[in-house]
């Protein structure tokens, strides 16, 4: 046995299974046993707490109801007309009929104000009121019956239970009270108030009552006056002398007793105004049934858990551990530079499949990057060759433009000379000796040169206004940012309305940024162009021509300074456009002569 166990534990996977079971199943069983005991104790305590609280509230409600009922009865027997009619028996048939109607009316009116099944008022001598007794459906000889004489001789009101065997009538709890004259202790009659079981059951319908839990009301002798479970025990004497004895000693309590061969958890509360006791009975098997059901389910779970645990370990080994090991081997080959390895295709939709597909994708991307790097290096050398091949000597170009200007002025064409001079200035500022950094002042000079050329080309003046802080003119600035935007405003916004069109350039310093606004009162920029600027695709970059200047400036700002420095455009059709450039204040300074 021991040798077999040792052989079983020699495998790493088997050792993991044994360790897994040891650290899960055994503590699980111990915890289940402890939880079972504590659960039963907790359920019992919760039931006791709830039942006692509920019984206290039910006692208050029942006593309040009975007190209101007694007040209604006292109001009835205190009626002067009723007292007068019972004090003087009728002498004639007509007077008897009139008295009967009056007495029934008084009782009926009081009945409407009282929450009871039935209220009956009997004269102390029923034979003197035969018509009234017939209206009550009672014989005038009822006064000779035992219960009537007992009630007439009783000085104290009492309760009496009557249980009918009929199919349509349940038990009645009757409150019998003999009343006297208002001015003397002379007996005048008997009032009987009947309560059905539903008058009391409404006080004993808790929403959280356990299955088969019932509530009882017993009198001082132990007789059951009310049973919430369909009056199953109503009329019987509670078969628990121990509970009755404890009831006589304490106003409330808790017991675990056997009643009718079934163990119950019992709580009771004695009423203050009546010698009654309210009792809650909960069968113990109903209390522990949820726990027992849970224990049976727990046993099944433990057995299934043992089998599933072994299966899970085997499944994890075959479907996860081994594929991960294969992936590790492939990664080692990749480290060695073997890009021609075979990567098996995985159709799995879980993480293992994602790992294999992701690893394959990474290998392919690495191959593509290597190919792109090779092509980029080749393209770079081609571009360097083209730049060297097409490079123009700026001094030669400036001298040539100066010669053209001199000849134009000698022939009296000053307008051509000025245009050529502006073009040379624009070219000089645009080239900026091949540097990307210039100054705000040089950018403004370039804009002015461009505007001068445009004015000469279209043959009419353009209204372009400049408002810049003097402090920012010498600050470093990326070149070719303002001229494309001014060109865009002239060519696309105020074109066709040069007489009234106006472009305003204003610049200021805000915290660590240079802020420049280019504002015009032209046609505005279409929403489609602005939307394309925000969500630009590769096709738009390659094929689209609309908004090239905007796109160029916007992309350069984002590339150099980040997304927070992209162009801010406010445009309304027919009103105009405001484009705001935010440019960080750079510490880099221009070289002399730049």
UniProtKB/TrEMBL annotation:
Gene3D superfamilies in the record: HAMP domain in histidine kinase (1.10.8.500), Histidine kinase-like ATPase, C-terminal domain (3.30.565.10), PAS domain (3.30.450.20)
Positions of the HAMP domain: 318-371
Domain (Histidine kinase): residue spans on this chain: 478-587
EC code: 2.7.13.3
Native species: Paenibacillus taichungensis
Matches recorded under CDD domains: HAMP
Protein name: histidine kinase
Compartments reported by the entry: Cell membrane
InterPro entries with a match to the protein in the record: Bact_2-comp_sensor_kinase, HAMP_dom, HATPase_C_sf, HATPase_dom, His_kinase_dom, Sig_transdc_His_kin-like_C, Sig_transdc_His_kin_internal
Residue ranges crossing the lipid bilayer per the database entry: 16-35, 297-316
A GO MF term: kinase activity
Reaction it catalyzes: ATP + protein L-histidine = ADP + protein N-phospho-L-histidine
Membrane topology: Multi-pass membrane protein
The entry's keywords: ATP-binding, Cell membrane, Kinase, Membrane, Nucleotide-binding, Phosphoprotein, Transferase, Transmembrane, Transmembrane helix, Two-component regulatory system
